[in-house]
UniProtKB/TrEMBL annotation:
Ranges in coiled-coil conformation: none
Organism (species): Rhodocollybia butyracea
InterPro entries: NACHT_NTPase, NPHP3-like_N, P-loop_NTPase
Protein name: NACHT domain-containing protein
Key words, A-Z: Repeat
Domain of life: Eukaryota
Keyword Ubl conjugation: no
Stretches assigned to the NACHT domain: 37-184
PANTHER family to which the protein is assigned, alphabetical: AMELOGENIN, NACHT DOMAIN-CONTAINING PROTEIN
Length: 216
């Protein structure tokens, strides 16, 4: 969770920095008919990706538009485990989004084995299909931070394929923002025919103006 005790002290954007970037991200998240529903937020280590994602999650929660979030952490027992990614997000959706609480609860009640299924099946059954039942609801955003920090390149690509294909099967009131370092295999996936033309890239490297604001 974005405000989990496990994550304190949390990285946050310094006041009055990255304001335009955060505004652009928030406006994209709130669009009812964007040209893309998946965003790749990328930058090198130390560029502020996690701080941006934490700050944005708080803003979206205040607007009632945060669906769920997951912050990967390398080698962490649970936060480094991709098998709990969509289960955790579905749990947050059921807690915070009233029109999803019943459908998601019913899926788990009638098929408890879903919690041990593949990443693709968990996304499909716990999130995509329940959301498909309410295509005209206001969009909600799911944030996944540190994709490159979960175990294995194959897993990174499996997550990206599952997210992409969820939109080919259903019309969904969802937005995904995926933050990571610009690792070669992740970049190649976003530039492949699977993603080409259907996502928005967003470079988070900070400007000198932000640095000036921080120091002065």
């Amino acid at each position: 969770l974005h405000d989990s005790a496990d994550s304190f002290p949390q990285p946050r954007c310094h006041p009055e920095t990255l304001t335009k970037m955060l505004k652009d991200l928030q406006e994209w998240s709130l669009e009812t008919d964007p040209t893309s529903r998946i965003m790749w937020l990328f930058g090198p280590a130390g560029a502020g990706k996690s701080a941006i994602m934490r700050t944005l999650s708080n803003q979206l929660q205040s607007d009632g538009r945060l669906g769920g979030c997951f912050f990967f952490k390398r080698s962490h027992q649970t936060r480094g485990n991709a098998k709990v990614l969509f289960v955790t997000i579905a749990y947050q959706l059921a807690l915070d989004i009233p029109w999803l609480r019943g459908p998601i609860s019913q899926v788990v009640k009638h098929n408890p084995s879903i919690l041990a299924r593949s990443i693709k099946i968990q996304l499909q059954k716990l999130i995509s299909e329940p959301c498909h039942m309410h295509p005209n609801e206001n969009p909600i955003t799911i944030l996944i931070d540190g994709l490159d920090e979960c175990e294995g390149q194959d897993v990174h690509l499996e997550i990206l394929r599952a997210i992409r294909y969820s939109f080919t099967e259903h019309s969904l009131p969802l937005r995904f923002i995926i933050a990571s370092r610009p690792e070669a295999h992740i970049h190649e996936m976003f530039e492949s025919p699977v993603y080409r033309g259907v996502y928005r890239p967003f470079n988070v490297e900070q400007s000198f103006e932000d640095i000036r604001t921080y120091f002065f």
